[in-house]
Amino acid sequence: MQLCFFGSDHDHQNILQLLDMIPKYNGWLGRCDAFRDYDSFVTHLRWGEYDAVFVTQNNAGGMEGVIAARNVRPNIPVVWFSNDEGFGVQAYRLDVDFFHCKPITPRVLEMALERLSAKRQ
Question: In angstroms, what CA-CA distances link 20 with 45, 58, 80, 113, 116?
């Protein structure tokens, strides 16, 4: 699985550590390109070969990342972890494949990965 990640370094490292805690998904991640700024994220998403997008940017920045993902790659699966559950309605409107509020736990990440796996079948 090749991921395009938009969010903080802390969230990126946290997700990588959580992946190691989920035996079913050990070795699942082939590559994860992480971007903290919007312009780099959009540019790489447009030209890169990715299987899914993870967005962990807080507040409206996260929503802007999801909107960009939908505009640039309409069919790519999107996982959105937000610090505000109020964005859940926007996640529904933007057809996000998995939305959850932070903190990200091993079980929450596993649910997101199961959703992605089901979509790929």
Answer: 25, 24, 20, 13, 17
Query: What is the b/e burial string over 34-52, where b = at least 16 CB atoms within 10 angstroms of the residue's CB?
Result: bbeeeeebbebbeeeebeb
The pLDDT tens digits of the residues spanning 6-46 come to 999 999 999 999 998 999 888 888 889 999 999 999 999 99
Predicted TM-score (pTM) of this structure? 0.95
Of how many residues is the chain composed?
Answer: 121
Please give the CATH architecture assigned to the domain spanning 2-120.
Answer: 3-Layer(aba) Sandwich (3.40)
